[in-house]
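Thread: Newbie trying to understand structure tokens

Hi all, I'm a second-year student working on a class project, and my supervisor (Dr. K.) asked me to get a predicted structure for one chain before our next meeting. I've only ever worked with sequences, so writing a 3D structure as a token string is new to me. If someone could post the tokens and maybe explain what I'm looking at, I'd be very grateful. Here's the chain:
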Amino acid sequence: MALAALMLLASCGKESSEKKILSFKFAAPAVEATISESAHTIVAVVPFGTNVTGLVPIITVSEKAEVVPASGTVVDFTNPVDFTVTAEDGSTVVYKATVTVDPNGGGGGGGGGGTGDPTTWSGDINANTTWPDLGLPVDYVIDGYVYIDGNALLTIEPGVTIMFTGVGDGFSIGENAGLKMVGTADKPIRFVNPLNDNHPGAWDGIRIHSMRNDNQFEYVEFVNGGSGDDVITVYGKLSMKHCTIDGALHQGVATGNEGVFTAFENNTIKNCGGYPLWLNDPQKAGILGSGNTYVENGTNMISLNYYYLEANTTFNNQGIPYYVNDGMCVYDNVKMTIEPGVEFAFDYDHVLVVGGDGRFEANGTADQPIIFRGTTPEDLWDGIRFESSRNGNVMNYCQIKNCGPNDGWSVRSCLYIRSDAKLTLTNNVFGPSDYNGVGIENISNWGNITHSGNTFVDCAGGNVWLEGDGEWNGVEYSGNLILDDLP
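---
Reply by user tm_fold:
Sure, no problem. This is what the structure looks like when written as tokens:
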């Protein structure tokens, strides 16, 4: 009897560790939330017009447990709210409660009045809003264009799938607003086409006009967008990592005048009708990080669409060529650095100029040469015109080919070296060329050029063309001189 009494006393003195939220609802409006015990999340969808800044949750918790904020307390649900449950023994657990407004007047946990239907959204977002994962095959349906305005931030949580109703649907993020989408490898966020239109261009795209740092896309999939132009257009600022664009009527991603990437890495862009990347000026290529993949695109090159390189830029190897459709010019103490394996494709009759006090460093390797070429063997470009007298200009293990059109233009060479230019040329291949391999404006300046190991391939007008008055191998000459090799 004494032993039994001691056991009973010990049992009565043990404190409970139970700490669950058993139910979570609102009386006005009459909505009961969905509770995920495994994820410790609470999701409620309230009717359109509900003021989420002053809702009163009615909460039931485990016996002998307490919750903060307490049941019956007025709570602002503009952003997700943490509810901390404390057991009798002092242990705690935190549930994250998210309240979303249904623009179509529904209500209930899980969206669509708890019927299993997705939440349809149409119109503007003017306050901070979170779209949680409702656990449905499609969580949200977008009907029309959604404008995120003011200082509003739309946060889309991992696992959410968003479907569009047609080609005119998309998102526009205003200059002071933001869009944060951070999924995971296991729970990506997905933007998909309507069920009845499984083709590129089935919905429009996402237009980012703001410079907010919380514009973040991570582990987001965009399927069959780009009906207007691009799936994603960056006029402001965006960090984009581990994302996939699969299918676009035109480009995958494009930048506007002020658009900039704070990060761009480990992304996959495929099955786009145009370019995977369209950059409105070439220095934005310097922000492209590693791990990006571009496959099965209509023109599988990165398009660079402005003549002047206006800031120091390093071009790294993205696995596909950079397409230069308007030529490129490096001036004003700007340095162009090109890493091994990079390839440039120039449009017909365009040129790369390194002039004034511009700086140029193209260091390839025997295994990964740097290639400068025309877009096709028939589309001859005008080659490189070198005018800079800065020290340290280098071309090493470069191939300059499909150039030098014999059309009367003054350069007509893969590489044309102007007077006073300084350059180190080693292990390069010049040609095929429709005219010369290398053109030199003034032989008297040849002492500024360091060279070795260079070769020539199919230069129709001669390997090297010397221009002007000077002395060649102790013999005075005037005019032009064609040589088989570099002197």
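A couple of things are worth pointing out once you decode it. The chain has three domains: 17-117, 118-306, 307-487. The chain has a mean pLDDT of 87. Feel free to ask follow-ups in this thread.
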